[in-house]
Amino acid sequence: MLETMKGAIFDLDGVIVDTAKYHYLAWRSLAQRLGFEFTEEDNERLKGVSRMESLQILLEVGGVEADEAERLEMADAKNKEYVDYISRLEPSEILPGARAYLLLLRSKGVKVALGSASKNAEFILNRLGITELFDAIIDGTKVSKAKPDPEVFLAASAALGLEPSECVVFEDAAAGVQAGISAGSKVVGIGSADILAEADRVIGGLYELV
Predict the structure, then answer these.
(1) Mean pLDDT calculated for residue range 89-104
(2) Considering 13, 18, 42, 84, which one is annotated as catalytic?
């Protein structure tokens, strides 16, 4: 699978860098302003989910009703707080093995793409100093359907000029694994084998592949 792939498509959060902690802090801050607690357990439901869908889950947790204008305002406030956190990201925060594995793939002629729901993906890659290691960046500004819909991975493989079956997807969320499978790609899960049981292979991190 990894030996024969022509393209590699990576999710961002939890695969290349751990910005999930900053998402959580920003969502928790919003929940506190709305008058309820949003726990780390609650936050697990947001993995791989778009910003507006994440907000919907958060409001359900808190039993809060809000109209469209209020929702947009809440999402914007959350994002501003999140961007404030990630504006201080440094290259040292790249997850172990990620940079080395990206370089290894490029040395072998494998095309590399990002497939992330994040609308801040390019900003994060720039902060980490690894933008040039990607041949294509497909993020939340270029697709509208959230995982487990395969849109982001279909767009990424197309941007690489490859068929989905020629690509391997690297994901840390169950919804992302499902999206990769639906796209027609093989999937490497990064994290718990219990959560990512549908993946073709599960590893602890990209450091295992270097």
Answers:
(1) 97
(2) 13
Q: Which residues are annotated as a binding site for Mg(2+)?
A: 11, 13, 171-172
In a domain, 2, yes or no: no
Give the domain CATH number at 56: 1.10.150.240
pLDDT band at residue 49 using 50, 70 and 90 as cut-offs: confident
What's the one-letter identity of residue 166? E
| Mean pLDDT, rounded, for 37-65 | 91
- The CA dihedral of 160, 17, 31, 173, to the nearest 10 degrees, is 60
Q: Is the pLDDT of residue 155 over 80?
A: yes
- 103 and 204 in a single domain? The answer is yes
CATH at residue 162: 3.40.50.1000
Binding residues, as ranges, are 11-13, 27, 46-51, 54, 78, 116-120, 147, 171-172
Residue 11 annotated as catalytic: yes
Structure token pair of residue 130: 């690894």
Query: Distance (Å, rounded) from C-alpha 74 to C-alpha 148?
Result: 24
Domain membership of residue 1 (yes or no) is no
Catalytic residue of the set 11, 18, 42, 135: 11
pLDDT at 44: 85
Look at residues 83, 89, 37 and name the one whose alpha carbon lies nearest to residue 64: 37
* Mean pLDDT score, 2-20: 94
Q: Write down the mean pLDDT value for the chain.
A: 95
**Whole-prediction pTM:** 0.86
Q: Which domain holds residue 143?
A: 7-18+93-209
Evaluate whether 75 touches 96 at the Cβ level (below 8 Å).
no
